[in-house]
């Protein structure tokens, strides 16, 4: 899970996820997801783990809202 990656300080795996978020955001028309991926990637590179965790919080909120809306 993303939280486990943060706990392990697995920067390489988190950078890959951030890259996927950037691409998915652009591909599916969610520019904020691209921005979240940018922030997550930059924060991972700088080892700003609280910011990375905050990015994951926002992503989880989006997923929860999508589940509530679309089932």
Strand content: under 5%
Give the N-terminus to C-terminus distance in angstroms.
22 Å
Mean pLDDT: 95
Number of helices, counting only DSSP H or I runs of 4 residues or more: 4
Helix content: over 70%
Identify the overall geometry.
Answer: globular
Low-confidence stretches: none
Radius of gyration: 12 Å
Category by helix and strand content: mainly alpha
Number of strands: 0
Characterize the main sheet. none
Can you write the helix and strand succession as a string? HHHH
Short account of what is shown:
This protein has 71 residues and is an all-alpha fold. It has 4 helices and no strands.
Characterise the protein shown here.
The chain contains 4 helices and no strands. With 71 residues, it is mainly α. It starts with a helix and ends with a helix. The mean pLDDT is 95.
Task: Give the secondary structure arrangement, pairings included.
Layout (H helix, E strand, L loop, with lengths): L1 H7 L2 H18 L2 H15 L3 H22 L1
Helix pairs in contact: 2-3, 3-4
Describe the structure using short key phrases.
single chain, mainly alpha, about 70 residues, 4 helices
């Amino acid at each position: 899970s993303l939280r486990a990656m943060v706990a392990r300080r697995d920067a390489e795996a988190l950078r890959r996820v951030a890259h996927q978020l950037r691409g998915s955001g652009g591909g599916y028309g969610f520019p904020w997801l691209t921005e979240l991926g940018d922030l997550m990637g930059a924060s991972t590179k700088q080892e700003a783990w609280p910011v990375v965790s905050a990015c994951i919080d926002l992503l989880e909120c989006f997923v929860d809202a999508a589940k509530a809306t679309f089932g």
